[in-house]
Amino acid sequence: MLPYNKEMNFLQYFGLLLFPILLINLLEISSFPGDVKDVGRFTIEYVLYLSAIILLIYTIIYFGKLYNNLIKFKHIYFSLGILGVIYLISHFQNENYVENTTLLYLFLTFTLTIIFINVQWTPNHVVSFGHIVNFFVLFLFLHWFVLDFPIGKFKSVFWNPNGLGIATFCLLFFQIIAIKYVHFGFKIYFMIFILMNLIVLYSTTSRAVFLALILVLAPCSHISSSIQCSQSFILLCFLLY
User: Fold this and answer.
1) Which residues constitute the domain of residue 21?
2) DSSP characters over 160-212
3) How many separate domains does the chain show?
4) Residue, of 111 and 69, whose pLDDT is higher
5) Are residues 23 and 70 in the same domain?
6) Range with the lowest mean pLDDT among 172-176, 210-214, 219-223?
7) 165 closest CA partner among 126, 206, 193, 128
8) Which residues on neighbouring strands pair with residue 158, listed in sequence order?
9) Are 87 and 168 in the same domain?
10) Coil, helix or strand for 52?
11) Residue 202's CB: how many other CB atoms inside 10 A?
12) For 132-156, how does the pLDDT look when each residue is reduced to its tens digit (9 = 90+)?
């Protein structure tokens, strides 16, 4: 078995590779021409299938570590399992076999989540992801500004407002968590971009996202552990998905 630090690098490199690709995935729900959307669709399939292969390799080599994380984050795995069972029962009960591929993608998404749970992220990774998200949010905010501050149904380059709302909600996590690992000046910097994100999010008037914000902020106000807050956020992203 490889030393522990090499094991972590194995998944860290994969995670670092995936993050910018995950942003490219958003092209699939954009309003760009078909060829551009196809790039997003292809990268989604690439990420999902690759994550299954990586998880299989990781399980074979580091089964002990994976099992320990399974025990540590058992409530997350349990929630994913319940969600999977519900989808399976619904799928077979309704004989919805034309959506077999969609069901497969759902379970492949679970494998991607398991990979991210097992990655030993460092503060530098978190802050770097936050900066990347800030550039994306800046683009959306400037687009909102150019369109004369729409306060409802804003969708920017996305296919519909819900798509934009869900994307900005999920990316908000990386901005918030990055604040923990930067000094005061950069905290202000990130808070400005968080405000931009919230303005864009509000302008979508997506009720699902507003409800998700309440469900995240309410429990986190009573939870001292940032890890538990992060886990709640991840589970809500799945519900939105």
Assistant:
1) 1-120
2) SHHHHHHHHHHHHHHHHHHGGGS-HHHHHHHHHHHHHHHHHHHHTT-HHHHHH
3) 2
4) 111
5) yes
6) 219-223
7) 206
8) 30
9) no
10) helix
11) 17
12) 999 999 999 999 999 988 888 899 9
Of 72, 104, 120, at which residue does a domain stop? 120
For residues 82 and 146, membership in a common domain is answered with no
Whole-angstrom CA distances from 26 to 62, 68, 72, 136, 170 are 32, 33, 31, 11, 12
Whether residue 187 is found in the same domain as residue 205: yes
End-to-end CA separation in angstroms for the chain: 36
Based on the fold, state whether residues 30 and 80 are members of the same structural domain: yes
Residue at which a domain ends, from 91, 120, 149: 120
Based on the fold, state whether residues 111 and 178 are members of the same structural domain: no
Q: How far is CA 105 from CA 68, 76, 91, 125, 155, in A?
A: 26, 19, 13, 27, 25
Q: How many CB atoms lie within 10 A of CB 197?
A: 23
Please name which of 58, 200, 182 lies closest in space to residue 128, comparing C-alpha atoms.
Answer: 182
Do the Cβ atoms of 137 and 168 come closer than 8 Å?
yes
Token readout for 232 is 């709640």
What's the token pair of residue 108? 């492949």
Q: Match 């900005």 to its residue by tokens.
A: 168
Between CA 231 and CA 180 the distance in angstroms is 16
Same structural domain for residues 130 and 184?
A: yes
